[in-house]
C-alpha cells in the first residue's frame, strides 16, 4: 500500500499500486506507521531532511474508502464506518503538520475529497498539468464536510473565489488554476516530471540545514487553527522560548 525510501536527505513516501489509493483505515494506519519511522529517523540524525509524498497510477488519492462504508447493512452502520475514517484521518494530518522537516506532495493524479486534504496538509504541492484535478466531491455525493476539512481549506486556500468553487460548487480545479491561486507551488507536464520537481524542491529545502524541531514549531505557529482542528496540542510560549534559548 505504501513504501518509504530514503535518498540522501529526502524521504520518499509512495502510495503504491495502480488503484485509487482510497484512504481506508488500513492505508491510513500504514501511512501513519511510515511517518512515525520517518520522524524517528529524522530526530535521531544530525542532518536536516525533507519528505516527498507521491502516488503511483492515475490517482494521488480518491478520498475515503466509500465502498467499505456503503457495504454496511444499515444506514447507521454506514455512517459509523464513514465516521471511523474521518476520525482516523485527522491524526494522520496532525502527523504531517508536526513532522520535523519540510514536506512536499507530488500530486501526479486526481486528488479528491480526503485525498485533497492529504495533499493540502503538506507544506508545498507540485502538480501535473496534463491530467488530474483537485476536487471536493462531498456536495455531489450528498455528504457534509468534516469541520477539520473546512478549517484546513480555509487555512490553505486563501482566494475566496477558488474556495467557493471548491466548497460551494464542487468544482474541479486543474493544476494551472491552482498554481495561479496559490494552492499549488509547482506545475509540470507529466507525472514523472512532477515527481522529479517535488524531489528537487525537497532536496533544496533539506540542504538549508534547518533544525527539524524548530521548523515544525514554526509551521504549527503559522497554522494554529488547522493544528487545533486535527487535535495537535498547542505549544506554550514557555516551550517556544525554551527552544529558542537552547539554540543560542
UniProtKB/TrEMBL annotation:
Catalytic activity annotation: a (3E)-enoyl-CoA = a 4-saturated (2E)-enoyl-CoA; a (3Z)-enoyl-CoA = a 4-saturated (2E)-enoyl-CoA
EC primary class: isomerase
Pathway(s) per entry: Lipid metabolism; fatty acid beta-oxidation
Transmembrane segments: none
Pfam families on file: ECH_1
EC number: 5.3.3.8
One annotated Gene Ontology cellular component of this protein: peroxisome
Keywords, sorted A to Z: Lipid metabolism
GO MF terms, alphabetically ordered: delta(3)-delta(2)-enoyl-CoA isomerase activity
Gene Ontology biological process terms from the UniProt entry: fatty acid beta-oxidation
Family: Belongs to the enoyl-CoA hydratase/isomerase family.
Name listed for the protein in its UniProt record: Delta(3)-Delta(2)-enoyl-CoA isomerase
Organism: Iris pallida (Sweet iris)
